[in-house]
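Thread: "does anyone have the structure for this chain?"

Original post by V.I.:
We have the sequence but no experimental structure in hand. Need at least a predicted one for the grant figures.
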Amino acid sequence: RFIARASAGRSATPSRVSDAMAEHLASIFGTEKDRVNCPFYFKIGACRHGDRCSRLHNKPTASQTILLTNLYRPDVAVAADPRAATSGAASRAGRGQEGFEAFVEDVFEELDGCGEIEGVNVCDNVTDHMMGNVYVKFVEEEAAGRAVEKLRGRYYDGRPIAVEFSPVTDFRESTCRQYEENSCTRGGYCNFMHLKPIGRGMRKRLYGRYLGGGRRERREGERSPGRKRERDDGEDDGRVTAKGMSDDARRAMFASWNDADDE
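Reply from O.Q.:
Generated one for you, tokens below.
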């Protein structure tokens, strides 16, 4: 009897210890304190050490977000030392911005049929593991899965598309706040995402189709109407960014734009 009670007592203690350990590991997962899992891969879906990293890259088998690695290539040359520029502002100017928005529209239209897209985010960083990375976040994981299957084995601009699920779902934790304030001193070499913004007019045309729960049907290969007219007019469409906005806030913003058009 004595032995039986002692054995029962010993079995209860490891259980409490394991529970506490599990809670501790969960609280530090994906942070700098986590010595097992890579915090940079967890936050930005990429790591400068790649396969040589000493920590684990836990690649998800399903996610709302897919990563198209190094897909975007700007049509303007990158400065020899991007840190000399102010947060990559030069690469967003003039015809570079025009080409960028055409690229975003290409990606959006290609994947829109897979399901509702919450955001298309393109990195402005110049490091090898982040340059031209495109993150497409869908409202539903199933839509992201369809997009991965659709893009596998495909090419864009003569280059094979590298696509995978990404662990990044909250871009507020991944983006550089100083970049958004035009005050990042690391420029394109920053370890956090520098996401290139698109113009207000383009954002409205792409995401406005989801307002009211409806989807606007478009013929295959049709481009957004009025793009050339707006460019010829040379009007400033007032560029805005909506990174980190909730779905309700995003839809409210779109609704205010539509109300303004109706007046």
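V.I.: this helps a lot. Residues 70 and 132 are 4 Å apart (CA to CA).
O.Q.: and Confidence is low (pLDDT under 50) at residues 4-9, 24-30, 76-94, 216-243.
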